Amino acid sequence: MDRAKLQTVHPREVRQLIREGKWRDHTSGICRGYTQANLAILPQNMAFDFLLFCQRNPKPCPVLEVCEPGDPILRQIAKDADIRTDIPRYRVYQKGKMIAEVENIKEYWRKDAVAFLIGCSYTFETALIGANIPLRHIQKGQTVSVYITNIPCTPAGAFKGPMVVSMRLIPRNLVVRAVQVTSRFPATHGAPVHIGDPEKIGIKDLQKVDWGEPPTGEEGDVPVFWACGVTPQAVAMESKPEWMITHAAGHMFLSDLRDEELAAI
């Protein structure tokens, strides 16, 4: 399936393609105008601690929906979506180590599994494009660059770790506009957490990404960093929960929510 054709289709259609194994690529730029979401699945006995972690760290972990224990079917942000099959690629962690990257998680699903859907910065990219702010990774068909920072999240129960950020190279004269545009979307990370010198947040080399692909910019571009929903994966590596499943970076859940439904103004 051609990526360009998927920019304007309804998320339900793409979820069906994913469920049938016909789309396994990243979801950047797909279903423009619809909200995408990060995924974190944990055992029920750790779910309250994780919900508290999200409540204390709303920039990287804005919660869009929490499923009932053992129930993989979403009720709020999409109809009849199955969280076990409707994401292009998943990662499975045990005690902080990734043990598998798979195309569905049916064999890993548990009766005590609780799924959290967390806002994704892909959501505000449509608004940035609408404001004539170029996004280099979309222009090049790449996934966004993602880094672990030295910014600590506020701990909660068993969970602690650093904030993860996504970075977009923005033309210098459009940085203020990018801040204004993304500030309208607090449910999907909102305004940037840092602008400029990467070393001030612990990133020594922009070409050495932790997830995604290295950036390619143009003269006059400025690195702008937004809190990222991949943060739970960094937290998993540091907090070492018994068992955790996430999306693979860049391979998001496509919801039925329109971006503007989440806009603050």
Structure in words:
The protein is α+β, with helices and mostly antiparallel strands. The protein has helices at residues 11-19, 44-56, 122-130, 136-139, 175-182, 231-239; strands spanning 34-43, 63-66, 90-94, 97-102, 113-119, 145-152, 162-171, 194-195, 221-227, 244-247, 253-258. β3 (90-94) and β4 (97-102) form a beta hairpin. The termini are far apart. The model has no long low-confidence stretch (mean pLDDT 92).
Compact summary:
The chain is an alpha+beta fold. The chain has helices spanning 11-19, 44-56, 122-130, 136-139, 175-182, 231-239; strands at residues 34-43, 63-66, 90-94, 97-102, 113-119, 145-152, 162-171, 194-195, 221-227, 244-247, 253-258.
Give me the strand/helix succession.
Answer: HEHEEEEHHEEHEEHEE
Mean pLDDT comes to 92
Poorly predicted runs are none
Described by strand count, sense and barrel closure, the largest sheet is: 7 strands, antiparallel
Question: Helical stretch count?
Answer: 6
Strand content: 25-35%
The helix-and-strand class reads: alpha+beta
Terminal CA distance: 36 Å
Rg, rounded, reads 17 Å
Helical percent range? 10-25%
Shape: globular
Give the topology, please:
Layout: H1 11-19, E1 34-43, H2 44-56, E2 63-66, E3 90-94, E4 97-102, E5 113-119, H3 122-130, H4 136-139, E6 145-152, E7 162-171, H5 175-182, E8 194-195, E9 221-227, H6 231-239, E10 244-247, E11 253-258
Antiparallel strand pairs: 1-5, 1-10, 1-11, 2-5, 3-4, 3-10, 6-7, 7-9, 8-9
